[in-house]
Amino acid sequence: MSADSVSPGAGTTDSERFLFRQCRKSFLQLWSYANPFRDQVSNQGSEGKELCDILICFGNNILLFSDKWCSIGSGPLTPTKWDRWYRRAVLSSIKQLDGAERWVRQFPSRIFVDKQCQSTIPIDFPAPDKLRIHRIAVAGGAARNCQDFYKSHSGGFIVLGPGLSDTSAGLPNVADLAPFQIPAVFNNNKITHVLNEDTLPLVLDELDTIADFTEYLTAKEKLIHETPHIVIQSEEELVGLFLGIRSGVAPALANTDTDLLMIAEGIYDDIKSKESYRKYSDANKSSYLWDYLIEHFTACAIKGDLFPGSVLSIRENEELLRFFAAKSRVHRRLLADALIDLYATCSRDRVSSRVARLPSTSETAFVFQCAPESQDWGDDYRKGRQQFLMSYCILTGYRNQDVKHVVGLTSLGENPGVDSFDMCAFFFEKWDKEAIRMGKRLEKEMLKDVTDPLQQRHLVDLDNIVAWQPSMEQEEEEEEEEGIT
Questions:
Q1: What does the CA dihedral 203, 206, 209, 215 come to, rounded to 10 degrees?
Q2: Using CA atoms, how far apart are residues 371 and 349, in angstroms rounded to an integer?
Q3: Is residue 279 situated within a structural domain?
Q4: Most buried pick, 100, 177, 270, 323, via CB within 10 A?
Q5: If we measure between CA atoms, which residue out of 27, 15, 17 comes closest to residue 62?
Q6: Helices (DSSP H) in 314-454: which residue ranges?
Q7: 7 assigned to some structural domain
């Protein structure tokens, strides 16, 4: 078997290629795989069988996409047209997703990026007890028909909760459904998110990080399970409600224990029209610098030069890169703003540093540095700044021993969209006497070489800079350790 590689494909039909571009933009290249294969060889040949159209593997989350495009035809909508489209576009996707989910749960190590089944997906799948699978069916070809049928501004399908569609015998009978009303739950009580050519780009544009998208899917699944008699007028309306609640523009649902819950038409447009939401959205524009950095470092990992002299595989580097990509859009904005602010205030003759910690992931610290070329690091400036960053990251861990992971970024400090970046990462498990001695040595050596030494910017409040101060117990321990030879 050859070495792992990233996905060589990008879809086999126009709709699949569009789906892959959308997923690649939102979930980035290392975690997005078009047309993966399983090594369940058919009788007709030696090639594997396609698992699904898109597979996203990120941490404990697996997203399975099945894309089916079927034109419903022009003219009046007849029961025959509706039945044919529903079976070809929706039920065939459900069948593919059922098979893909079974395979992922049973044989995660036998999923490949090529039809010859030579290159496995270069990411470790989660343990069975931690695995979370989200199923997304993209049923295309009927958005305009749906819009015309309901005289609606939206082409999104009406979603019915499990209390409003009978799935006791497996898949719901199409004859029991009004046109363009889609059950949320199919056989085996599994929720499948059915999108189309209108709602897919809207959802992925509004929730364009893996953290935001999976948080939305999880919240929607919870709502449907807890509120079986729910009618969602269109996917975009539920997205609007989710965005409104998250941004503080709309109140949370106070009570879902009702006979019928209607997510009505107009919520999305109302939320998007509010000035407070526009300000919230505009503030997030800086966050795309973080996306740029993720893709930059991913490209380096694929080429094998993420670290100086690194021999790590893509699979081994993925865990580190996941620290960057796991951040939501708001958290990416906070981190990017901290980096941009450092660029705006950094010294031109000394190394400037910023230590940033997010409130929701307090065990991880990000170290940002701007290192001007005026530093006395000999002939190899790049190697000098890399070594300085690594020492500073170790020192950050020593001065903040509640931190388990320290990820460092360093650059010239002139333009974050142009500068080359170097990175490093340290995972701290235990600070023994030898490690503490090294931390004390680095502290003495480095404090004279940096501006604002070891001050930490808490991103919950970007104007609040808190300097590390040792406790009395820590000072006593340090005095004792000074006597260790």
A1: -70
A2: 8
A3: no
A4: 100
A5: 27
A6: 314-325, 329-345, 381-399, 433-446
A7: no
